[in-house]
Design goal:
This protein is mainly alpha-helical. Helices cover 35% and strands 5% of the residues. The chain has 18 helices and 8 strands. Strands 1-2 form a two-stranded antiparallel ribbon. Strand 6 and strand 7 form a beta hairpin. It is globular, with a radius of gyration of 23 Å. The N terminus is likely disordered.
Length: 554
C-alpha cells in the first residue's frame, strides 16, 4: 500500500507549493562500466579520474544526490541522514506539523520500503561506495606514485565510511548480532542482481581491513582541505569501528592517534552558536558546502543551514517552526554550570549563549532583535518565525545571522568525539581510573568547570553516554549509540509532562525488531539476493512502553 504526505510551504510573500511525497520515486537502476572500460576512459581523459575523486566528497552533502530531478528539500546526503537518525532517537525532535519533511522519523513510519527518506539514506552511501570502487578500479593497484597511493587510500576510507553509514541500522549491534545478516558488500566480481546480505561480522571486518590499509598508505601524507581524508580521519573511523566491535583497547588507542594535532573548542568558543565552519580548529573532518551547491530552486532548502541552524534567513525550519529542539529528559540533566546548557533555549526562550547576537530585518535595517528577543522576532519577509521552547541554537550560521546563503559546513568528526571514544575504550578495557581522568579533564576544562564525574550517580558507562548525547547532539550519533549499547529509545516517562510532540511520545525496546531499517523496494526489486526483507515488528504508537528507562535520563 502506497502512502503519501503532502504539504504546502509559504516563505515570505512567495507561495511555494512543494510536493512532500515521501514515496520512493523508483528511479530505475542503471548499469556501470566495466573495470577495463573505466581504465581506458581515464587513460584517455585523466580529468575524469580527478572528477570521480572529487565526486566522492561532493556527494556527502550534495543536494538531490539521491533524486537528481525531484528537488526534494530533504535530499542532502549524509547530513540529511544525520538529522534523520537523531530525529528517530530520544533527544532531538522537530515539530509535528504539515511542514516537517522528517515527520516520518519522528513517528518511525520510515520503515516502509517504499518511502523516500530511508531510500535516500540507502542510496547515498552506496553511491559513495560505487564511486570509490570506480576510482580504485581506474588506477593501477601496484602504482608507486605517492599521489595515486594517497588517493586510493582516501577512496578506501570513503568506501569504509559508506558501509559504516549503513551497517548499524539494518541489524542489531555487533555484540548481539555478529552472525546475523546485515547489508550487501559490493565486491569485485559480485553479481549485483543476486548479492545476499553479508553478516554483521563480515561487514565490520571489511571496514576494519579497509581502514587499516588506508592508515598505512596515508602515513606522512597531507591534504588540501579538511573536506578530504588524512591519517587522522582514518584512525578516527577505525576508532569508531573498534568501539562498535568491542575492541575497546584498540578503540582508545586509535582515538588517541586521531586527535593528535587537535584541541577541543574552548568554553568561550562554544558559548555562542558555532559548529558550522570547516575551519573550526576542533574539526578533524567535515563536509564543505559551497555557495554554488545551495543556490537555485529547492537547493536553498536542501542543506543543514536550512534545517538545523536557527539563524538562516531563508531556511525551511526557521520559517516553519521546525528548528530541532531538545527533549527535556536530557536537557534537565545538564547542569546550569555547563556551557552546553546554552546550546538550547530554556522554557522561557532564554539562553546566555546568544546575548551578543543581533538579527536585522531584511526589509528594514532599523528593526532588529538581540539575544532573547530573537526568539519571538518575526522578519517581514516571513523567513523567520517564533521559536519554540528548547529550540537549539548550537549550530551557528557561517555566512552570518539572517543570511540567505545556506552554506553551513557539517562536522563529520570532531576531536571531542575522539576524547569520548578514548574514555569509553579505556573504561571498557579495564582502565576505569584512566578513563575517569580523561573524561573529567575534558569536561572540566572545556565545558563545565564545576563538573563532578559522579555528580549524576550514573555508572561510568552511562556517564560517558550522557556526555556523548550532550556533546554530539544533532550530529547523527544517537541511534547508532543506542543500538551498539543495546539501549532502548526513551522519549518520555509515563505520567510526567514532556515536550516531545504527542504523536512522537513513545519508547522502543532495545530488542524490538522494528529498530532495524527495511531495504528499499527499488533495491529488493533489483537485487534478488535480499530475500526476505525484514518486516518483523510493528510501528510504535503514542504512549507505548511508558515504563522503559535508558540509564541516563531516569
Amino acid at each position: 500500500m502506497k502512502l503519501y504526505k503532502i504539504s504546502t510551504l509559504m516563505l515570505g510573500a512567495a507561495l511555494l507549493t512543494v510536493s512532500c511525497n515521501d514515496i520512493d520515486e523508483q528511479v530505475p537502476q542503471g548499469g556501470s562500466l566495466t573495470k577495463e572500460q573505466v581504465q581506458e576512459t581515464n587513460a584517455a581523459i585523466p580529468a575524469r579520474t580527478q572528477a570521480t575523486f572529487a565526486g566522492m566528497f561532493d556527494i556527502m552533502g550534495k543536494p538531490f544526490g539521491a533524486y537528481p530531478s525531484s528537488g526534494r528539500a530533504d535530499d542532502f546526503g549524509f547530513i540529511m541522514a544525520a538529522l534523520s537518525l537523531d530525529a528517530e532517537g530520544a533527544d532531538l525532535f522537530l515539530q509535528d506539523n504539515n511542514y516537517n519533511w522528517f515527520s516520518v522519523c519522528g513517528e518511525w513510519s520510515n520503515r516502509n520500503p517504499n518511502y523516500a527518506n530511508p531510500t535516500i539514506r540507502y542510496k547515498i552511501p552506496y553511491t559513495l561506495i560505487g564511486l570509490a570502487n570506480d576510482f580504485i578500479a581506474s588506477l593501477p593497484a601496484d602504482s608507486e606514485d605517492p599521489t595515486i597511493i594517497n588517493q586510493i587510500a582516501q577512496a578506501r576510507v570513503c568506501r569504509a565510511f559508506g558501509y559504516m553509514a549503513l551497517a548499524p541500522y539494518f541489524q542489531f549491534g555487533y555484540s548481539v548480532a555478529k552472525d546475523k545478516p546485515c547489508v550487501p558488500l559490493l565486491l569485485d566480481g559480485t553479481d549485483f542482481t543476486n548479492n545476499p546480505r553479508a553478516t554483521v561480522g563480515e561487514v565490520w571486518q571489511y571496514v576494519l581491513d579497509e581502514l587499516t590499509l588506508a592508515i598505512n598508505d596515508l602515513a606522512g601524507a597531507t591534504r588540501t582541505s579538511k573536506a578530504y581524508v588524512d591519517q587522522n580521519v582514518a584512525y578516527g573511523l577505525r576508532a569508531r569501528a573498534n568501539l562498535i566491535c568491542g575492541n575497546y583497547a584498540a578503540a582508545a588507542e586509535d582515538a588517541a592517534k586521531a586527535m593528535q594535532g587537535y584541541t577541543p573548542a574552548t568554553m568561550a568558543e562554544v558559548s555562542e552558536p558555532a559548529f558550522c565552519n570547516l575551519s573550526e580548529h576542533n574539526w578533524i573532518w567535515g563536509i564543505n558546502i559551497t555557495q554554488e551547491m545551495v543556490t537555485g530552486g529547492n537547493r536553498v532548502y536542501a542543506n543543514s543551514s536550512s534545517w538545523v541552524s536557527a539563524f538562516s534567513g531563508d531556511g525551511y525550519a526557521a520559517a516553519t517552526e521546525n528548528t530541532p529542539c531538545i527533549n527535556i529528559l536530557l536537557y534537565d540533566k545538564i547542569p546550569a554550570t555547563d556551557v552546553r546548557k546554552g546550546w538550547w533555549l530554556d522554557e522561557n526562550l532564554h539562553s546566555p549563549n546568544w546575548a551578543n547576537i543581533t538579527w536585522v530585518d531584511p526589509g528594514d535595517a532599523t528593526v532588529t532583535a538581540t539575544g532573547d528577543a530573537i526568539a519571538t522576532f518575526e522578519t517581514s519577509d516571513g523567513g523567520k518565525t517564533v521559536f519554540q521552547p528548547y529550540t537549539n541554537i548550537k549550530f551557528g550560521m557561517k555566512s552570518g545571522v539572517g543570511s540567505t546563503v545556506n552554506n553551513n559546513d557539517w562536522p563529520l568528526m570532531r576531536v571531542e568525539e575522539m576524547i569520548l571514544i578514548q574514555a569509553e575504550g579505556l573504561a571498557k578495557s579495564g582502565n576505569e581510573a584512566q578513563a575517569k581522568t580523561v573524561l573529567e579533564n575534558f569536561v572540566k576544562t572545556y565545558r563545565d568547570p564545576e563538573y563532578k564525574i559522579d555528580g549524576r550517580g550514573l555508572s561510568l558507562a552511562d556517564e560517558i553516554w550522557f556526555q556523548r548525547r550532550v556533546e554530539l547532539w544533532g550530529e547523527g550519533f544517537f541511534i547508532g549509540d543506542a543500538k551498539r549499547l543495546n539501549k532502548p529509545v526513551v522519549r518520555f516517562h509515563g505520567g510526567i509532562e514532556n515536550n516531545e510532540p504527542a504523536a512522537f511520545q513513545f519508547n522502543v525496546a532495545a530488542d524490538d525488531p522494528y529498530q532495524n531499517m527495511r531495504f528499499p523496494q527499488a533495491e529488493t526489486n533489483y537485487n534478488l539476493g535480499i530475500v526476505p526483507n525484514d518486516e518483523t515488528g510493528t510501528q510504535p504508537v503514542a504512549g507505548q512502553n511508558p515504563n522503559l528507562r535508558d540509564g541516563v535520563t531516569d
